[in-house]
Amino acid sequence: MSAANLVTSVNAGLAVALESDERVVMYGQDIGRNGGVFQATAGLQERFGERRVFDVPLAESGIVGTAIGMAVAGLRPVVEMQFSGFVYPAFNQIVSHVARLRNRTRGSMSLPMVIRMPYGGAVRALEHHSESMEAIFAHVPGLKVVIPSTPHDAKGLLLAAVRDPDPVIFMEPKRLYHSPQQEIPEGDYELPLGQARVVQEGDAVTVIGYGGQMRDIRAAAAHLKRQDIAIEVIDLRTIYPFDQETVVESVRKTGRLLVVHEGPRSFGVGAEIVSFATEEAFMYLDAPPRRLTGTDTIIPLPASEHFYFMQPEHIVDAVLELIET
């Protein structure tokens, strides 16, 4: 075991992927010599060479487009979008080709590739640097969308994503990159994609989240526990395909549901989970399911950013309102 924060665990996972499979290559803007904006790839070019980890021009469409060709040819490319807000020039490649190749070839071909990107706000960044648009990718058939919230999960999920036969969008909450360290296994391990984690068991309310919002959910859970209120906390980890069995089992147990995410409210991940829970556990619900989300606005620039995000006290208030309903 070794101590790591989320960004160093990502780095460790990438190193294991490169070491264990010579087909793995990694590239993006400044990820080689400089180790990336957040140092997620620091030291990898020196260790594995410029043919395995390298820099490319500022051209997101070209980055993803060439990765498609590499994956078809038998490699396992892991490409980085410097920020999730920069991915849109590559969206045509992702929607038109990355997500469709298996269907287009009736299963005879797949694309084992990973598109990594820091996502989310709360770091006082500029426009296009703080967005939480994961629902866009979750709406595209053919993509898997993974968002870790802990160092342990980040490494294990990343290794599973690299080895998956299909394309994975791997979104890393940059507000958690330098969060407190956690003991993670050294060497190689995987965590299954599509499987949520029950962070805390409880019977009062099911609270579901993922990524950057999990820190606030855990803080709210600790506050409520001091009031003898035990909520069940679920970290989705994979938002598509999400773990339907764990979600419905928990909602049937608690009878109440709150979904928390920082992405915009309308047509978001929370809406999908609330809809699913209502369809599959309606007779078990003691109160209407709720969403606590970002607003339907572009995330504000740094001076007003704090108005956009849910704080632990907002989650506590929403839980108490659900209990009293």
Description:
- The chain is globular, with a radius of gyration of 19 Å.
- It is 34% helix and 19% strand.
- It has a 7-stranded mixed β-sheet, sandwiched between helices. It has a 5-stranded mixed β-sheet with strand order 9-11-10-13-14, with helices on both faces.
- Helix 3 runs parallel beside helix 4, helix 8 crosses helix 11 (312-324) and helix 9 crosses helix 10 (269-281).
- The protein has 325 residues and is an alpha/beta fold.
How is the secondary structure organized here?
Layout: E1 2-4, H1 6-20, E2 24-28, H2 44-48, E3 53-55, H3 60-72, E4 76-80, H4 91-98, H5 101-104, E5 114-119, H6 134-138, E6 144-146, H7 151-163, E7 168-173, E8 182-184, E9 197-200, E10 206-209, H8 214-225, E11 232-235, E12 238-240, H9 244-254, E13 257-264, H10 269-281, E14 290-294, H11 312-324
Parallel strand pairs: 2-3, 2-4, 4-5, 5-7, 6-7, 10-11, 10-13, 13-14
Antiparallel strand pairs: 1-8, 6-12, 9-11
Supply Rg.
19 Å
Strand line-up of the largest beta sheet: 3-2-4-5-7-6-12
CATH class bucket of the largest domain:
Alpha Beta
Determine the CATH superfamily of the largest domain: Thiamin diphosphate (ThDP)-binding fold, Pyr/PP domains
Question: What is the terminal-to-terminal distance?
Answer: 45 Å
Number of domains: 2
Q: What is the CATH third-level topology name of the largest domain?
A: Rossmann fold
User: Count the helices. How many?
Assistant: 11
Mean pLDDT: 95
Could you state the order of secondary-structure elements as H and E? Answer: EHEHEHEHHEHEHEEEEHEEHEHEH
Alpha-beta content class: alpha/beta
